[in-house]
Amino acid sequence: MEFFIAILASILSDSAPIIFASLGETLNERGGVINLSVEGTMLLSAMAGFAVAFTTDSLVLGFLAAMIVGAIVASLVAFGSITLKRDQVAVGFILTLVAGDLSSFLGVPFVRVPGPQIESLPIPFLRDIPFIGPVFFERDIITYLSFTLIIGMWLWFYKTQPGLQLRGIGERPEASFARGGNVKLMRYVYILLGGALIGFAGAAFSLHVKLGWSHRATAGFGWIALAIVIFGGWDPLKVAFGAYLFGALRASATTLQSSGLEVPVQVFPLLPFPLMILTLVIFNSRGLDRVLNYLPLGARRALTRLLRSNPPAALGTHFEQE
Amino acid sequence: MTDTRNLFVRITTALAPLLVALIIAVLLLVATGAPPLDTFVKLFTGSFGTPSKQADTFVVWVSLAIVSAGLLITFIAGQWNIGVEGQIMMGSIFATWAARGVWEQQGIVGIPVIILWAMVGGAFWALLVAVLKIYGKVNEIFGGLGFNFIATAFNIYLIFGPWKQKTGGTLSGTEIFPEALWMPTLPELRVSPIAIIIALLVLVVIYFSLRGTLWGLQLKAIGKNIRAAFVLGVPTNPLLLSAYAVCGACAGLVGAFLVIIVHHRLIPSISSGYGFLGILIVLLSSVNALWLAPLALFFAAVSIGSTALQLELNIDSSLGGVLQGVLVLVVLLMQGIKEKVISK
To answer: B35-314 adopts what CATH topology?
Structure first.
C-alpha cells in the first residue's frame, strides 16, 4: 500500500509539466491555432526559467521569465500565422528548431549547476485523509496548480460565456465574427496564454521535476504534449488523463528497469514515448471502429463518445476578417 | 516609379533575411561575450578554409542534398514527413544489419548490398507512416513522430543489446566495420567522390521526374487539392505511397552513407538532425528543386563551420542551428509581408 501510494503520488507530481504544456496547447488549438513549437518552447523556457531563478535566487521570477519566453515564441507563431497567413505548421516547426538550438547555445553556463527548487508544501488537515491525503495533498505548489488548472480550464470551457466564445472561434470563426467577436484579437490572446502555459511547463521541469538544466533536458516531452492534446480530444479532463497515462507509462518503465529483464537498461526511459504515440494511433485508427462495432449499441455510443472527438473545425485554417 | 519600387522590394526581401539572421547572431554572440567578427571569419574558414574542411563540408552536403531531394517529393504531395529522422536512422540500422551479413566480403560486393538494403529500410519506415495516414487516418506528423521515437529506442536497444561491442555496450556505438566496407574516399580526405556523384544523380532524377513526368504532375495535383485530384481520376493512394517510399529510400541512402562514410559504425544519434535540416532546406527553397543543391551547400557549410567554432573558439555549435533556423523563419515571414504589401 505504501508503495502504491508512493507511485501514484510521484506520477501526479512528475506529470505536472506535461499537464501545463498540453493544457496550454489545448487552449490555443481550441481557438483554432496550432502551436507546433511546443518542443522547442519547453526547452528554451526550461533553460530560461532555471537561469533566471539561479541568478536572481527567486523561483517566482524564474517561472515568470519562462512564461514570458513561452509567450514570445507563441507571439511569433501568432504573427506568422494570423497576421501574415503563413502555414502554421511550418512556422511552428521552424520555431521548435530555433528555440531548441537557442536553449543549447544560451544554456551553456548553466549546465548541471545545482540551483533553487520547489519545496514540498503539505496542506494541513487535507493531508490527514487516509489514502487521498498522502496521494494528493502532500505535494507542492506546482502540483496543486496543475490540479487547479485542469478543473479551472474545464469550467472555463464549458461553464462560462467567454469559454463558449473561445470554442466558437475554433469551430466557426465566421459565426463568431458575425456575432461581433474580434476573432483575430481573441486568437492572439489565447495563443499567448497557451504559450505562457507551455513556458510555465518548461520551468516546472527545470525547477520542479528534473531539477536543473542540461543539454536537451526536456527532449521529447514537447512532442508528447502535442500528441496528448489529440489523444485527449481537446477536452481538458481527457487531456489530463492522457498526461497521467504517460506519467504511468514512465513510472512503469522505471519499475521494469530494475526488474532484471534481458533488455538493456538504456532502452527503458525511451519506451514511454513510442508507447504513448502508439496508444494515440490505436485510439484514432479505423481499426478501433471495427472492434467497437461488435459491442451493443449503447456501449458503443458511450465508448465512442469517450474515445473520440473531432478537432476544432477551423483548426489550422486562416480567417479573413473583413 | 513602380519598377524601381518593385526592384527595391525584391532586393530587400532577398537580402533582409540574411541581414536579420546576422544581426540576431551578432546579438547572441555579444550577449555571451564572444567576438562576433572572429566568429564569422572562423565560421567561413572552418567550412572552406582548407581542403580537409572543404571535404568535410561536402560530406555533409551529400546527406543534406539527398534528404532534401526526397523531402521535396513528399512536400510537393502536401505531406509533412517529420518521420524523416527515423527513416534516416532506420537506413543506418538496415545498413549495419546488411554489413553484419557481408562482414567478410570485399567492398565491391558488400557496399552495394549495404546501400540497397538501407534504402529498403528507409522506404519501409516511411511506408508505415503512409499506411497509417491513408488507411488509419493518422496525421503524418504524429505517425512520423511515433516512428522516430521507435527508431531511436530500437537503435539504442541494438547498440546496447544484440549488436553491442565485444567489450560491452557503450554510447560510442557498435563494432567498427572492416575497412573493406568503408566507402572509398579521396586520399587523406573524408569525402567520397562516388557519394557526390550519387547525390547529383538523385538531384537530377528528382528534378526531371517533377518537371517531365505524369507522376510528378499528379503529385503536384495531390499537393494542391487531394480531393479534387481524386475526383479527376488521380490514383491518390498509390501515388502517396510512392511519394513516401521515394522519400524514405532517399533518407535510407543518407543513413547508409552516414554509416559507411562518416562513422563506420552505428552510433546512437546517427541521423544527426539532418532530416529536420532537410525540411528547413525544402521550406527555404520554396519547394523548387533547382535551389536544393546550393542551399544544401550553405547549410552544410554553416554546420561544419559551427563545429569548428566549438573546437577552436569554444562557442557552442548550436549557434549554427540558430542561424539556419532564423534565416528560414525570416524568409517565410518576409514572404508574408511582401504579399501583404502587394495586396494593398
So the answer is: ABC transporter involved in vitamin B12 uptake, BtuC (1.10.3470)
